[in-house]
């Protein structure tokens, strides 16, 4: 029985595609020729095939017919045009057999034939594409290398970064890269993964059949380049010029830096675990907080490096030259310092536990104050250990190992209640292994620096202070940091970039918000108590110190937001107790003042005292920034007191937390700089219950 559908010829005969031998001459500029030209602009096989199918459909031609026409067009142009890549060769093979293929499938409809032809063409094109992959990859590699050569003199180059990423993704090397002073912050070069099948790879689950391989940048010139926060894991930088390079916070785990020149380099906070620094030069480099765990530093030259709080756990330092190095507070647990040179180095509070090897290590005149050892003979196997500075009880410490007793100092720049609150909180946080020192330092940057130096000389472990000046205080704080002292600031925070080599934590309230909240309550109070009177304010701002100026800015913002009419009649500074005379003078010369606003604890305290001394309690009221204490609480509970509101800065809470943070750093449980925002509390005469509750809370912190 015939299976041919009704009405359909069981033996259809499809003519072969009609080819036009003069296509180029007769159809120049015609749509079909323009179609061929569009196709020829496409180099990628899979894209070209897709466009061919679309073009054939647009001209209502079968795929085979369109390909024949395209081939003929291309052949006609070969005499005048450069040869095309052999992208259509698979189609030529298909064309040669198309007649036989049609005869064989003469029982199949034209639609099915087109479908089969299309699928076959796709398959052949896909196979052709696979064979072309190596050629395409090599071209990409060559193009990327050309970009690196062309842009070697540019500091800022997105093209260079893109080219390096391309080479990395294709696992291609680029030894001898020339990119001095290049800016490549946060560049990620860790995308090369090569097949790796071993007994170890199938021992773990999930199986790992690909292994990461770092980019090869050996013998590169990256002098003074900026690669902060870059990812160069397992990179090969052997023999490279990295003098003055910035690799802070970069990931160089497992990298090869053998023989590289890193003199003056910045490696602060970098991950250098397992890296190879054999014969490398690191003179005067910054290594603070870097991680050299299990790194190989054999014969590395490291004169005058600064490696405070640096981890050298189980690192190899055979014959490493660390002359005059500063390694205060660093960890060298299990490290091998065989014949290393530590002459004149500072090794205060360094951890040499877990069988750290000091055999034949040169310790001539090294400072080993408060260093930790695991055995007496460990130190005695070193050379010139007798001349090294050691803690008086270092032998007893080895015999009875325990956490060292820590000393934390509070520098009080004024005898005000806020510092008393800090001290109270700090003493509540202390225990038998933590001792609190408290020193009253006269105001001024020079006096502050002198007090800091005295604490350093005494062997203090940590300092809590409110810096006298955001700029002037920096040199003394940097000196404390270099001595291995943990510095924590209160009532002021440096920006993170400034703080990273100086301060470990800060506790601070929002100064702008405090000033604004104080102004908001002041205007609300005035709306009730000064309904028909002008609002004449005398400002005591303490703006001499920059850390208090934001309080005043916040106050101005708050007053502007209230739409209340007011006048700043006069203003004075208050930074010492003697400045009460200036406040009294301002009140005497401006009898129209009915409000004093204090921009700091001392300013508000002196404002209250000046009003009371002049007997102006009934006429002049005081608002401002002031910490909570029993005396202040009694004032707020007294309706006859001039003090109407304060902004409490939670001094007891801050002092308590500052001690715990310092201990965490000193026990190596915390290393990164952290800002701790503290919520302030507005306390007023109109809310006596809150004053009583918060006073009880402040006195009961454990």
TrEMBL record:
Residues 411-670 form the Periplasmic binding protein domain. Pfam families: Pentapeptide, Peripla_BP_4. Residues 1-16 have a biased composition (Basic and acidic residues). It comes from the Bacteria. InterPro entries: 5peptide_repeat, Pentapeptide-BTB/POZ_domain, Peripla_BP_I, SBP_2_dom. Residues 1-23 are annotated as: Disordered. This is Periplasmic binding protein/LacI transcriptional regulator, putative. It comes from Acaryochloris marina (strain MBIC 11017). The lineage of its organism: Bacteria, Bacillati, Cyanobacteriota, Cyanophyceae, Acaryochloridales.
């Amino acid at each position: 029985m015939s299976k041919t559908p009704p009405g359909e010829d069981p033996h259809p005969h499809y003519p072969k595609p009609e080819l036009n031998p003069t296509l180029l001459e007769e159809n120049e500029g015609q749509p079909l020729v323009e179609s061929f030209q569009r196709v020829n602009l496409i180099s990628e096989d899979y894209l070209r095939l897709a466009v061919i199918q679309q073009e054939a459909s647009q001209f209502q031609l079968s795929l085979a017919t369109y390909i024949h026409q395209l081939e003929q067009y291309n052949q006609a142009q070969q005499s005048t045009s450069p040869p095309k890549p052999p992208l259509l060769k698979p189609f030529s093979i298909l064309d040669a057999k198309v007649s036989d293929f049609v005869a064989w499938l003469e029982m199949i409809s034209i639609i099915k034939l087109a479908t089969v032809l299309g699928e076959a063409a796709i398959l052949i094109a896909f196979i052709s594409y696979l064979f072309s992959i190596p050629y395409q990859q090599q071209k990409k590699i060559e193009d990327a290398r050309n970009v690196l050569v062309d842009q070697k003199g540019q500091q800022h180059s997105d093209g260079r970064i893109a080219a390096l990423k391309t080479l990395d993704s294709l696992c291609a090397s680029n030894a001898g890269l020339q990119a001095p002073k290049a800016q490549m912050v946060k560049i990620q070069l860790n995308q090369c993964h090569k097949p790796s099948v071993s007994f170890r790879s199938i021992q773990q689950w999930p199986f790992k059949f690909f292994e990461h391989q770092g980019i090869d940048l050996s013998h590169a010139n990256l002098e003074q380049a900026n690669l902060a926060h870059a990812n160069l894991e397992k990179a090969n930088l052997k023999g490279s010029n990295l003098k003055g390079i910035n690799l802070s916070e970069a990931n160089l785990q497992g990298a090869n830096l053998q023989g590289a020149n890193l003199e003056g380099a910045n490696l602060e906070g970098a991950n250098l675990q397992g890296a190879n620094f054999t014969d490398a030069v690191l003179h005067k480099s910054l290594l603070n907080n870097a991680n050299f765990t299990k790194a190989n530093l054999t014969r590395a030259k490291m004169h005058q490096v600064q490696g405070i709080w640096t981890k050298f756990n189980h690192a190899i330092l055979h014959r490493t030259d660390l002359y005059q190095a500063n390694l205060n507070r660093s960890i060298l647990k299990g490290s091998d310092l065989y014949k290393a040179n530590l002459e004149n180095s500072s090794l205060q509070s360094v951890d040499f536990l877990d069988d750290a090897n000091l055999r034949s290590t040169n310790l001539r005149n090294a400072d080993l104050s408060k260093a930790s050892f695991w055995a007496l003979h460990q130190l005695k196997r070193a050379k010139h250990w007798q001349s090294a500075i050691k803690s008086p009880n270092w032998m007893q410490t080895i015999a009875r190992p325990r956490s060292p007793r820590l000393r934390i100092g509070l520098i009080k720049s004024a005898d005000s209640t806020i510092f008393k609150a800090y001290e109270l909180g700090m003493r509540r946080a202390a225990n038998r292994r933590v001792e609190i020192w408290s020193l009253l330092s006269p105001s001024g940057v020079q006096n502050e620096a002198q007090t800091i130096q005295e604490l350093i000389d005494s062997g203090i472990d940590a300092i809590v202070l409110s810096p006298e000046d955001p700029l002037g205080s920096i040199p003394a704080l940097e000196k404390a940091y270099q001595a291995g002292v943990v510095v924590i600031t209160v009532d002021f925070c440096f920006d993170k970039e400034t703080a990273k080599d100086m301060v470990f934590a800060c506790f601070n309230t929002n100064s702008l918000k405090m000033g604004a909240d104080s102004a908001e309550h002041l205007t609300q109070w005035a709306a009730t108590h000064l309904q028909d009177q002008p609002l004449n304010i005398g400002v005591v701002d303490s703006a001499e110190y920059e850390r208090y100026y934001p309080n005043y800015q916040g106050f101005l913002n708050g007053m502007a937001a209230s739409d209340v009419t007011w006048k700043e009649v006069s203003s004075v500074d208050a930074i010492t107790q003697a400045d009460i005379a200036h406040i009294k003078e301002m009140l005497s010369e401006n009898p129209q003042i009915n409000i004093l606003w204090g921009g700091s604890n001392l300013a508000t305290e002196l404002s209250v005292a000046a009003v009371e001394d002049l007997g102006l309690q009934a006429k002049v009221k005081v608002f401002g920034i002031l910490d909570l204490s029993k005396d202040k609480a009694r004032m707020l509970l007294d309706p006859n007191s001039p003090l109407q509101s304060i902004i409490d800065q939670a001094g007891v809470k801050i002092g308590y937390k500052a001690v715990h943070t310092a201990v965490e750093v000193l026990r190596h449980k915390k290393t990164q700089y952290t800002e701790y925002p503290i919520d302030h509390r507005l306390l007023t005469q109109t809310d006596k219950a809150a004053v009583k509750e918060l006073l009880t809370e402040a006195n009961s912190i454990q």
